[in-house]
UniProtKB/TrEMBL annotation:
Entry protein name: DoxX family protein
Membrane topology: Multi-pass membrane protein
Membrane-spanning parts: 42-63, 70-89, 95-113
Assigned keywords, A-Z: Membrane, Transmembrane, Transmembrane helix
Keyword Membrane included in the entry's annotation: yes
CC annotations in GO: membrane
Species of the source: Cohnella endophytica
Subcellular location: Membrane
Predominant place of localization: membrane
Length: 123
């Protein structure tokens, strides 16, 4: 399972780093999406910061696995909200599916690494 966790961490870290920073930078696709979802643009920036923070925690998790476990839970919840937004605005399955995948995979990572949570600061 360690190899699966490392691969998931790397892939999710890259995905959320890219997605987070592109939201923060105001890439037109994200600006348009948030308009279509009737969400304010400041929420796009906050979402980008949340995703980037999760990606950074995933990267820290290579040295301290408890950070990756927390990041998995953090990003899984974040993407659950994203899936609910897609459902609320009645997006197609094709539009919603990537958010579903990016909701499930961090939760899988969390479940793999949940035994390391006791090492997380404050737990």
């Amino acid at each position: 399972m360690e190899i699966v966790a490392i691969v998931l961490q790397a892939l999710l870290g890259l995905a959320f780093l890219g997605a987070g920073f592109s939201k923060i930078a105001g890439v037109q696709m994200h600006v348009d999406n948030f308009k279509n979802w009737h969400l304010p643009q400041w929420f796009r920036v906050v979402t980008g910061l949340v995703e980037a923070a999760g990606a950074i925690a995933l990267i820290l998790g290579f040295w301290e696995p408890s950070w990756a476990a927390v990041a998995g839970l953090w990003l899984g919840f974040t993407m659950l909200v994203g899936v609910l937004v897609h459902v609320r605005v009645k997006d197609s399955f094709k539009q919603t599916f990537p958010a579903v995948i990016l909701c499930v995979l961090p939760i899988v990572l969390f479940l793999i690494l949940s035994g390391d949570l006791s090492d997380f600061p404050g737990f």
